[in-house]
């Protein structure tokens, strides 16, 4: 058995075994019965090293956010709450307006946590914790703090500069959205899960040669609906 498929995504054999131990109390595959008792469930440090984003997402969902926070002992850098208005269709097929609070948390995990057993020390890493607006499921998304800072500050990070406390959670969640529409030409943004729909003000204006990240100001002012 070279790969183990979990939630329709293939994993290397050893990694898949460790994830199965997170997902099941009893062995789900007959071929693993003889070694099931010796398999160790994956830790957050193992899952975080997966380079495939879909594999990492499934691993974190199986581990659970609470276990991530307990295992990695991250430091909370920023917590922000945005009050949002949205429209839903109720069970009677009628449009209903409602207001909800969306909370985002920015965490830092020390590089030493991932450097165990390695010959070199790794840099600190950062992630945003947030909830799905429709299911209430919690997610964590890795962010590049230097890039987040440069996107919002409009300047490069100086050599040796510590910008940790100059970045907030809303800037980070905005940074996860990319577009080739220039600044000042966005009319509004609609977000439906992972699908981002951006309407330009003027369709005749050229798009950018490379995609850019959204700023905090754009995120706060231009998203008109989420689901």
Question: Please, could you describe this protein's structure?
Answer:
The strands form four sheets. A four-stranded antiparallel β-sheet has the order 3-4-5-6, sandwiched between helices. It has helices at residues 13-23, 44-48, 53-63, 65-72, 111-114, 145-153, 169-175, 216-222, and strands at 3-6, 9-12, 75-89, 95-109, 125-131, 138-143, 178-179, 186-192, 195-200, 212-213, 223-226. It has eight helices and eleven strands. It starts with a strand and ends with a strand. By secondary structure, the chain is of the alpha+beta class. Strand 5 and strand 6 form a beta hairpin. It has a domain at 1-63. The model has no long low-confidence stretch (mean pLDDT 87).
Q: Topology of this protein?
A:
Blueprint (H helix, E strand, L loop, with lengths): L2 E4 L2 E4 H11 L20 H5 L4 H11 L1 H8 L2 E15 L5 E15 L1 H4 L10 E7 L6 E6 L1 H9 L15 H7 L2 E2 L6 E7 L2 E6 L11 E2 L2 H7 E4 L1
Parallel strand pairs: 8-11
Antiparallel strand pairs: 1-2, 3-4, 4-5, 5-6, 7-10, 8-9
Main sheet strand line-up: 3-4-5-6
Report on the biggest sheet.
4 strands, antiparallel
Q: What is the H/E string?
A: EEHHHHEEHEEHHEEEEHE
Oligomeric composition of the shown chains: single chain
- Amino- and carboxy-terminal Cα gap: 40 Å
Mean pLDDT: 87
Structural class comes to: alpha+beta
**Count of individual helical segments:** 8
Give the uncertain stretches in residue-range form.
Answer: none
Classify the helix fraction into a percent range.
25-40%
| Cα radius of gyration in angstroms | 21 Å
Per the principal axes of the C-alpha atoms, what is the gross shape? globular
Strand content: 25-35%
